[in-house]
Design brief:
The protein is an alpha+beta fold. It folds into two domains: about 190 residues, Fructose-1,6-Bisphosphatase, subunit A, domain 1 (Fructose-1,6-Bisphosphatase, Chain A, domain 1, 2-Layer Sandwich), CATH 3.30.540; about 120 residues, 3-Layer(aba) Sandwich (D-Maltodextrin-Binding Protein, domain 2), CATH 3.40.190. The protein is built from nine helices and 15 strands. The strands form three sheets. The protein has an eight-stranded mixed beta sheet, with helices on both faces. It has a five-stranded mixed beta sheet with strand order 12-11-13-15-14, with helices on both faces. It has a two-stranded antiparallel sheet with strand order 1-2. Strand 7 and strand 8 form a beta hairpin. Helix 1 packs antiparallel against helix 2 and helix 2 packs antiparallel against helix 3. The protein starts with 9 loop residues before the first helix and ends with a helix. The mean pLDDT is about 90. The chain binds 2,5-anhydro-1,6-di-O-phosphono-D-mannitol. The site of 2,5-anhydro-1,6-di-O-phosphono-D-mannitol has 11 residues, from loops.
Length: about 325
């Protein structure tokens, strides 16, 4: 039988990367393998969503006061489960849970990483068969190894992330993750149930033509944002405008598209919600890390997302992210 050695699985890729570091313990590869496993389980359920009665509201509210869908709970339990039973993670924070969960057992207390995740982002799109995603962020603990993880392990600046990634459950299921060495994308080969390297060394195009924002909130945005949106709609030789507007309402899908094709995604503050909707730790930090590694820029409109010192795990921030030249145009808008 012919074996196509051009195909590289997620596990092969992470192990190969690890071999370049003689002191690596393999914990990060293990953690990524665990995340890949949970992602495959969620992929299966997402694909069954129209067939079985897993759709609909679970009848509870999450800590943000939003309706929880059943699939959110399923995804949360899968990611928490694999990380708890793995050997690489000392604790987790989830967008679906009020507080961090410290695993506090002999193996977990020896683990050097903690993980934060949004198990199912864009969940309002589940019922209508639109792409949704999982977002994750990995930090090295600052607390003492051998003891339980602490809140300080989770409340680190985004710049300290060791790895960050997302899974998009779309026309195909893809896992993209970045470390300081680069951003790489893996597509799930459903025939064999493996994530395989399909998008090596992702670079965000420096110039893009897509802008993504919720236009319904236009009159609630600050004037600078309104002026920039108008700028995006103008015909100019310098920028190649007008740009194309695309907004799915699933950040994973919106930012993924802009990362691959070039573009800017904005979730600004509004008069009603000055800090916007998106969570710094669960949504913005991981994407800021991935997009910066791929050559793009991410800010809250004033400062780099990755330099914000978080005060609490559920805090929100305005979010602007995308291609370098478009982000610079936005920053220069008066
Ligand atoms: P959700 O997971 O409760 O659906 O909320 C997160 C999503 C993001 O994926 C998306 O960018 C944003 O909410 C869209 O919000 P809006 O409908 O206000 O534009």
């Amino acid at each position: 039988m012919l074996i196509n050695r051009k195909i590289q699985t997620l596990d092969e890729f992470t192990i190969q990367q690890m071999r370049d570091f003689p002191n690596a313990t393999g914990e990060l590869s293990g953690l990524l393998r665990d995340i890949g496993l949970a992602a495959k389980r969620v992929h299966v359920e997402v694909n069954k969503a129209g067939l079985i009665d897993i759709l609909g509201d679970a009848g509870t509210m999450n800590v943000q006061g939003e309706e929880v869908k059943k699939l959110d709970i399923f995804a949360n339990n899968q990611f928490m489960g694999v990380l708890r039973h793995g050997i690489s993670c000392a604790g987790i924070g989830s967008e679906e849970m009020d507080d961090i969960v410290v695993f506090d057992d002999d193996i977990s207390n020896q683990s050097k990483y903690v993980c934060l995740f949004d198990p199912l982002d864009g969940s309002s799109n589940i019922d209508v068969n639109v792409s949704i995603g999982t977002i994750f962020s990995v930090f090295r603990r600052v607390s003492e190894l051998g003891k339980p993880a602490t809140a300080a392990d989770f409340l680190q600046q985004g710049i300290k992330q060791v790895a960050a990634g997302y899974i998009i459950y779309g026309s195909s299921t893809m896992l993209v993750y970045a470390t300081r060495r680069g951003a790489n994308g893996f597509t799930l080969d459903q025939a064999v149930g493996e994530f395989t390297l399909s998008h090596p060394d992702i670079k965000c195009p420096e110039v893009g033509k897509i802008y993504s924002v919720n236009h319904g909130n236009f009159f609630q945005y600050e004037e600078k944002v309104q002026r920039y949106i108008h700028q995006c709609q103008k015909k100019t030789k310098a920028t190649g405008g007008p740009y194309t507007q695309r907004y799915i309402g699933s950040m994973v899908a919106d930012v993924h598209r802009n990362l691959i094709k070039g573009g800017i995604f904005m979730y600004p503050g509004t008069t009603e919600k000055p800090n916007g909707k998106l969570r710094l730790l669960y949504e913005c930090n991981p994407f800021a890390f991935i997009v910066e590694i791929a050559g793009g820029i991410a800010t809250d409109g004033k400062q780099r997302i990755l330099e914000i010192q978080p005060k609490e795990v559920h805090e929100r921030t305005p979010f602007f992210i995308g291609s370098k030249s478009m982000m610079e145009e936005f920053e220069q808008t008066k």
